[in-house]
Amino acid sequence: MKEIIEDTNLVAYCGLFCGACKKYLKDRCLGCIKNDKASWCKVRTCCIENNFANCAVCTEIDDIANCKKYNNLISRLFGLIFRSDRQACVRLIKEKGLEQYVKEMAQNQIMAIKR
After folding, report:
1. Stated pTM of the model
2. Per-residue pLDDT at 82 exceeds 80
3. How far apart are CA 85 and CA 14, in angstroms?
4. Is residue 23 a contact partner of residue 45, using CB atoms and an 8 Å limit?
């Protein structure tokens, strides 16, 4: 199994930290940014089309809670299944910056802020 490392490239477009995900650590997933199979993800598609590193850098919508692409049915189900608060992750990236966010997530060995 891989070690959890502090790498900003392991932050998913939606704010999750792939670097602490069990699938990523077991080499079963490349992480969001490199996972071309995740073309179904509206958040990923939007960020790629707008050249955003993640939703925290979006300038079109002030509050992530108001984004229809971010808060679609699949995204809500994903959050429910993993008990993750992705909106809190995006707010934390905005508040502390990407590097500090990654550092905290890696140190705490978590992929998301829990609900």
Report:
1. 0.91
2. no
3. 10
4. no
